[in-house]
Amino acid sequence: MEKVEVGEIFTIEDHEGVGQEVEVLGTIELEGNEYVAVGFVEDIQNEDSEDDIDIYFLKVDEEGDLTAIESDEEFEKVSVAFDEIFDDEEE
């Protein structure tokens, strides 16, 4: 798989095997690993909604596949790093 780019849309399966389309909202490299922030396409495209969209963080593995972040510590580091990026973009 090639480098993941902002704006790309993927279908990921949940634990029950149901596919959901997600759009890449941001990417970051942290401690030698690549991570992506994604949101459900349906939520992003729903312009009428005033609700905040849910953002999920995934790790890009050696093969370029998106995987879950396994540890709470790793998730916290990624979450803080993306918060800083998204806060800077809003200013």
> Which outline best applies?
globular
Mean pLDDT: 86
Side-by-side strand order of the widest sheet: 1-2-3-4-5
Q: DSSP helix count?
A: 2
Helix percentage: 25-40%
The unreliable regions are none
Q: Per DSSP, what share of the residues sits in E-state strands of 2 or more residues?
A: 35-45%
Largest sheet: 5 strands, antiparallel
Structural class: alpha+beta
Order of helices and strands: EEEHEEH
Distance, first to last CA: 33 Å
Tell how many strands the DSSP assignment holds: 5
Q: What would you report as the Rg, rounded to the nearest angstrom?
A: 13 Å
Overview of the structural elements:
There is one protein chain. With 91 residues, this protein is of the alpha+beta class. It is built from 2 helices and 5 strands. Strands 1-2-3-4-5 form a 5-stranded antiparallel beta sheet. The longest helix has 19 residues, at 72-90. The mean pLDDT is 86.
Annotate the secondary structure layout.
Blueprint: E1 9-13, E2 19-30, E3 33-40, H1 41-45, E4 56-60, E5 66-67, H2 72-90
Task: Give the key terms.
91 residues; alpha+beta; five-stranded antiparallel beta sheet; 2 helices; 5 strands
